[in-house]
Amino acid sequence: MDRLNRTWKALALFSLIIAGFQSCSEDATSTGDQILTEANLQTILSTDDIAGTADNALAELFANSATAKSAKGSNDCYSAEYTDTGFVATFNNCVLNGTDNVNGTLTVTYEVGNETAAFTAVYEDFYVGDIKINGTRIYALSANSEQNTISFTVESDMTIEMEDGSIVSENGTKTFSFTFGDSLENSTFSLSGTWQVEADGDTYSVTTVNDLQGALGCEYLTSGSMNVAKNGLTILVDFGDGECDDDATLTYPDGTVQDIKL
Questions:
Q1: Predicted TM-score of the model (pTM)
Q2: Owning domain of residue 119
Q3: Model confidence pLDDT, tens digit, residues 11-41
Q4: In the record, which residues are listed under signal peptide (predicted)?
């Protein structure tokens, strides 16, 4: 149970850091060619915002399952039935940590080993406000106590129906690592992965070339690079060589290089 609890603490921390990553990457690409606009990138990353609320629901349910005295639990927010391998929960128009109201069904199964913990979460007509989520997210956690590192991978296959009825789908894999330093400011994180988003008739593909790196003591990504492609046309975004600064470089398909400020 301790390993599972650490999983959700790491997941909550990841949600905070990914929000900072989103703000940096939006600025990085919005100043480039109109092939990829800030609005496009917001579409690419909006699934993380929405899924983050779903993950909060998952974390709260698991925290309750760790102390549950019976196979069933309920409160004003949800009703849940727990088993040795997971739980099924139905939410009733409730608010979690100041989010929009949450409704729908969430089914979770998990497996714990000596060095890893894995979860599969299935969202069925799961609403965050007026946004509906259907699909699956698979989480896998590993830890290295000697290096004070926690890492986990999230594999998503999700469809999101927005308030205006438009559909956004995402599939792919992201891996996040967090290394604890002597203090929180000296702690570092990295993000890597490959994922694809489809929205409004466009297809966006994101692939990290070198792991995106950052430190909690710096408000910008400090190193790493990623390719962001819209309908097959790719722009390389490079965040630097480790210095805490607001510099980034865009490289376009024709070889044009542009230095920008984040």
A1: 0.71
A2: 2-194
A3: 444 444 444 444 444 443 433 334 666 567 5
A4: 1-25
